[in-house]
Amino acid sequence: MTVTVLVGGFFGDEGKGKIVSYLAQKDKPVIIVRGGAGPNAGHTIRDENKTYKVRMLPCGFLNPDARVMIGPGVVVNPAVLLQEIKEFGAEGRALVDERCGIIEDSHISRDSELKSKIGSTGSGTGPANADRAMRTLKMARDIKSLSLLLADVPGEINAAISAGKDVLVEGTQGTFLSLWHGTYPFVTSKDVTASGICADVGLGPTKVDEVMIVFKAYVTRVGEGKLGGELSAKEAEGRGWSEVGTVTGRPRRAAEFDFELARRAVMLNGATQISITKLDVLFPECAKKTKYTELSTQARRFIKDIEDRLATPVTIIGTGPAIRDIIDRRS
Ligand code: IMP
Ligand code: MG
Question: What's CA 121's distance to the chain center, in Å?
Fold first, then answer.
């Protein structure tokens, strides 16, 4: 029985979606439960020839045998969620906690101010969390269109754990977007480190076995806020590091892998394992490799350097966009 919490180590967009999809299919957890802020998160998953863009539904939906759930700490946009459940065929196995907060149109329009101030995604997540603190936010149990999806998510996941089943907890955003630990005020509207994600889903700290932190092989950031060692747009383009945001379509700013930030992220999350994504972007000769021994000397040196300097094993390595482009060193 293993309870794994997966979190982002930098500023979001580390490629968590792909890693969650892989673990959901490989480890076959019975529940994949999502914590984090709300539909400000965007995950892109590529499975064979299909690309999925997900904002509300847990990325583990690609395992058809798992139930996917959203914990009470998350704010939900019902229209986005219902659309994704339908589009991705998760009917009958997607559940929402009755205490999830609800984003309404007014939150989205109020977010436009934050958009220009701190580069918010404009999804209404921050204003909804503000209303929640003011005790005026509606909850999922007040919303008719969600009535068939309602559940006691903490009850469900803790019952599964008591029955000896595996549960995967999916974080969103990244450590330095945390309202507590990030680059305030250029942060999201709540804590998104492992402890916060556990609180979001109703999981006590003694129940967690593994904390997997995901780092991209380089750092990207959308919106405002400090990015140490930021490259010019031209330089990022030249290295093949230019990306656009899943939710906003804005260009992502880029920098080299930051060991100092990464070390702090490992500390803040209590990480027990590291996952490195997009290794093939740094080392094209490693594209689509599935065995560690097939990696180039340079790439292996990079991974070894991370393990030594962060004193944490690198167990999963992404070598391409598809879910099967992965090296799993856990066994
Ligand atoms: P908000 O959470 O929409 O208010 O945005 C606050 C800041 O966090 C902005 O810089 C966003 O671009 C960033 N942000 C929020 N969620 C994500 C995410 O899932 N990935 C990357 N950046 C995010
Ligand atoms: Mg994203």
Answer: 15
DSSP code of residue 134:
T
Report CA(109)–ligand 1 centroid distance (Å): 16
Strands 251-256 and 43-47: unpaired
What one-letter code names the amino acid at 257?
Answer: F
Q: CA-CA distance, 209 to 82, in Å (whole number)?
A: 32
Residue nearest to atom 11 of ligand 1 (CA): 120
Active site residue 107: no
Q: Which tokens go with 22?
A: 């892989």
Within 10 Å of residue 230's Cβ, how many Cβ atoms? Answer: 15
**19 vs 276: CA distance, rounded Å:** 9
What b/e sequence results for 246-270 when a residue is b if at least 16 CB atoms lie within 10 Å of its CB, and e otherwise? bbbeeebbbbebbeebbeebbebbe
Q: 84-116 pLDDT, tens per residue?
A: 999 999 999 999 999 999 999 999 999 999 999
Cα of 13 to ligand 2 centre, how many Å? 4
| Per-residue pLDDT, 8 | 98
Closest CA to 214 of 265, 255, 285, 268: 265
